[in-house]
Amino acid sequence: MFTNYPEYLMYRQWMSRALELAKIAGEAGEIPVGAVITDASGNFIAQGENRKERDQDPTAHAEIVALRNAAQTLQTWRLHECILYVTLEPCPMCAGAIVHARLKKLVYGVDDTKTGAIRSVLNIPDSAASNHRLRVVGGILESACRQHLQDWFATRRMQNK
């Protein structure tokens, strides 16, 4: 699948970090999603994790938090040389923000068959409404990302019984 092995290793490295952030979010009672932003060379820029419950902010998805942090770090909203790594396929709100931030690339772990807006349910980056073409790589550490989400939801269901 990947012809550029060093690039693939970089994807795995940053997705592992995003998974660590997802675990932190899950332990805090958030849906466990984590995100990391790097520059095109793989240097760390920013990170985020779901914070909707802690911040009482419906927009505090991991991707949005990471985008805000990256924009503050770089002092620009145009993130055209940046790569976003996120454990779960972004929702419509996040997909829109990603397109508007002009990200170079999105790398995600597992498809979201309920609200995924990159490839699964909708395809916002390739739609006529998109003013930016985004490169997308899905399925990085897919099994680990899926298992973490499934385990978290199973634990939540058990606690709610």
From TrEMBL:
Q: Name the chemical reaction catalysed here.
A: adenosine(34) in tRNA + H2O + H(+) = inosine(34) in tRNA + NH4(+)
User: Pfam families, from UniProt?
Assistant: MafB19-deam
- The residues responsible for catalysis, as annotated, are E63
Tell me its cofactors.
Zn(2+)
Domain named CMP/dCMP-type deaminase: residues:
9-121
Provide the residue positions that the database annotates as binding Zn(2+). Answer: H61, C91, C94
Q: What class of enzyme is it?
A: hydrolase
Q: Which Gene3D superfamilies match?
A: Cytidine Deaminase, domain 2
* InterPro entries (UniProt xref): APOBEC/CMP_deaminase_Zn-bd, CMP_dCMP_dom, Cytidine_deaminase-like, MafB19-deam, tRNA_aden_deaminase
The UniProt keyword set, sorted, is: Hydrolase, Metal-binding, tRNA processing, Zinc
Coiled-coil segments on the chain, per record: none
- What does the record's cofactor remark say about binding? Binds 1 zinc ion per subunit.
Keyword Zinc-finger among UniProt keywords: no
Enzyme Commission number, as recorded: 3.5.4.33
Q: How does it assemble?
A: Homodimer.
Per the entry, what this protein does is: Catalyzes the deamination of adenosine to inosine at the wobble position 34 of tRNA(Arg2).
For this chain, the family text in UniProt reads: Belongs to the cytidine and deoxycytidylate deaminase family. ADAT2 subfamily.
Q: Which NCBIfam families match?
A: PRK10860.1
Q: State what protein this is by name.
A: tRNA-specific adenosine deaminase
What lineage is on file?
A: Bacteria, Bacillati, Cyanobacteriota, Cyanophyceae, Nostocales
